[in-house]
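Dock zinc ion; give full complex structure.
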Amino acid sequence: MSILIKNVNVLTMETENGQLKAPFTADIVVEDGRITLIGSAPEAEYDEVLDGSHRLAMPGLINAHGHAGMSLMRGFGDDMELMSWLHDRIFPTEERLVENDVLLGGRLAVLEMIKTGTTAFADMYFFCDKLAQAVEEGGIRASISQGMNFSPAERIQTAFALNYKPTTDRITMMFGPHAPYTCSEEFLTAQAEVARESGIPIHIHLCETQDEERQIKEKYGCTPVEFLRRCDFFRGNKVLAAHGVWLHDEDIEYLKDYDFSVASNPVSNLKLASGIAPVKKLLDAGINVAVGTDSVCSNNNIDMFEELRTACLVAKVRDLDPLAVPAGTALQLATVNGAKALALSELGVLREGAKADIILIDTDQPHFFPRHDMISHLVYAASGKDVASVICDGKIIMRDRQVLTLDEERVMYEANEAAMRLCYSK
Ligand SMILES: [Zn+2]
């Protein structure tokens, strides 16, 4: 399978002297899943040719935290406190959730991600094999973890990460202990040990709200990070922590020496009034920061362009510093840093030899003019709706806004039917 993208404006996301390389015009050739050339393509036969003349090519975006299966609950319970939203609305509905709901909600999420330029995501939920099926069908990538809460330590042996055999290398796994306030000390200690032995990364919610910190303080007399340290959670493990809003300076000082990434979810944190993560402080300490949307229940879309713009804007207002997270850094959070957070090191940049996850942005629109600075336009002016075509793993999965891997109308119809049954049947 070969693809030629002819005469396109290329943003590689590679850096030169600490700055992002400015976009330049070139052809891109993709063969057997990899980028084989960025330059002047030779006259040859290609299986597919895409005209890049009104397009900008950049790496597919990476959503570092979400719950695709919750897509059926979009708009079902907004404007509530996190704890009452979880306990009164989400947890009771989730008790009725069946496997097929995760398949149908997963397909809806994958469809939305393709249409807004996301080609890889980290997810935590239940019925993970059903989400894996939706990801496989959609043609994108996911690092899937099974959320575990209030579980005995023995259940770790049944985790998706230890038992699932993926049929495509687009699917990888992580462990998913839900959070310090929903897992016991014994469970988290055992989880850390099993992760160390197996080399499988861990995905967890951490330091999301002040209420979480209060609960952990009451129970254990320490902060959530100190509690996890007691569980020997970080030593020898690769940890992806969602939120990190209430990380203290001492936590950052400690965590910077570990293989630790934060997935910041600014829209969710704003909507649930959880706070604003110290993104600049984390980056300055050398901690890898990526961006995630969290579920559509607290967002309510999974458009990574909106998310990365919000990450950039709230970082500025948090520190009252307009330079806190500049546009180029915001793009890095959603590409190279996302790749690192998901342990998918080959992704997040366009370079010869790298895996071909490429999105083409339609820049022939008023909000991309005048052409002062495309990096600025992508962060401060663009949205997911500007994504025209998507290539993942060397295959075209959306061409001129038409998704080729999923039946869009059917996905939306079936998700709606399932949601009505799930949320309103007694
Ligand atoms: Zn979450």
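Observed: The radius of gyration is 21 Å.
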